[in-house]
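Protein Entry — a single chain follows
Fields — amino acid sequence, structure tokens
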Amino acid sequence: MQKLHIYIVENNPLIAFALKKMLLNIGHNICGIAECYNEAVKDLRVMNVDLVITDIMIKGEENGIDLANYINHHLHIPFIFQSSTTSADIINLANQTHPNAFLPKPVSKSEMIKALAMIAA
């Protein structure tokens, strides 16, 4: 599998750390971590990123769905949602952004590997 440069958007530092550790153990690079939309957009405009993994509920006024829309309109890179939300309305809105995967929290290593394999192929 190709080594990906992955950017994580997650407002919970423990979850961000766990994701980072998991992805590094799988063999990918972490090129950045943000807690909010504005920080992520600022970084993503200038970084070489192969994939964004974002939570839906992040710090600030904009959420992960807003970030996905920004990515679709300006950056055109793959992204994965990872979220603990169970709201059908929010999940439907998220799916309208056409994520490469939607992984429920807590994200299992096997599910992450499957999602990444489809992107790195």
